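FORM 7B: Structural annotation worksheet

SECTION A. Query
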Amino acid sequence: MPEEFHRIRRLPPYVFAEVNKAKAKYRAAGEDIIDLGMGNPDSATPPHIVAKLVEAVADPRTHRYSVSKGIPGLRRALAAYYLRRFDVKLDPETEVVATLGSKEGLANLAAAITSPGDTILVPNPSYPIHQFGFIIAGASVRSIPATPDDDMLEALDKAVRHSVPKPTALIVNFPSNPTAYLADLDFYRKIVAFCRKHEIWIMSDLAYAEIYFGDHIPPSILQVDGAKDIAVEFTSLSKTYSMPGWRMGFAAGNPRLIDALTRMKSYLDYGAFAPIQIAATAALNGPQDCVQEMRDLYRDRRDVLIRGLHSAGWDVPNPEGSMFAWAPIPAKFAHLGSVEFSKLLLARACVAVAPGIGFGEHGDTHVRIALVENTHRLRQALRSIKGFLQADNASPAEPELEKSL
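SECTION B. Predicted structure
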């Protein structure tokens, strides 16, 4: 028998596991680790959404199998959100499908539309499922720059001219995880025009649509005329309403892609637990003050983090969206790479961050810092980081604690 199954051979060891293992060791030894690694919202889900869940759970009729594509009211609620937020009209029957979070939808659509050997264009660095969803499905991934500018457009042109076979799909993700880049509508127009000309599907990940801090309000690619001819967009309630564990997301856009995803899902799941779908409907249709409160919360945390890092001598760009800071590794630690730097920061400052290489090889010069702790804990982390940066810590030598574990 082969030593490893074919699809598993194409998946490298999960980079974050190495840091998570070290983090668990320190916690087991009694260390107070401030975890800014995983993008896992720490705020409670708004009470009116929880109340609707409890109400729905009490009805035994909701305990049965649900609908794989999402209950009709939920799909109508998502269409209503797109109309009021983006002025985009969607048919809830043919242009919307509910997913178990955006990650599941991305992976299942990749499986539905990919043939072995297809060429897929994916920004590097980017969220792991963007490339590995297609790799699992048997495709080959061609990396392109992650910046929403001429560099990406030029890379798309080169990819079409030099890739064999010609690319069949493109991933875009703005506001971006991990880089926090934002795109404007003019950039989306260029992307849509290019992909329509070359008959390339677009999969847009808009999970961070509501986390923005300035005048640049993230648009939807579906706002572009003709985008629905080739594009589908994934959104999620995880960050917008602090519902990460509820696993509720959506795909919307091109009817052919939505039909492919719906058919794939019909073989794989019966949809989310009905009370979750009912509560998600209440989230989208109900009062939206909680969304602004969430945005203000992340803005306050961002301001504390960036000011503190600058004060510590770490020059990190100020993100205008997402719940992350994309931090270049300080010069004196650059030789370590992102994994060893993350482990050193954990060992010497008791702060966990995500190694940039986990998002692609072009991310190895950075670490991702998530805004998932309150401002008190962030300030505590910043004091430790400042002490770490000002000490002679440029060596990856292990501390005594780690030697003893």
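SECTION C. Observations
Residues 289-311 form the longest helix (23 residues). The radius of gyration is 22 Å.

SECTION D. Sign-off
Analyst initials: ____
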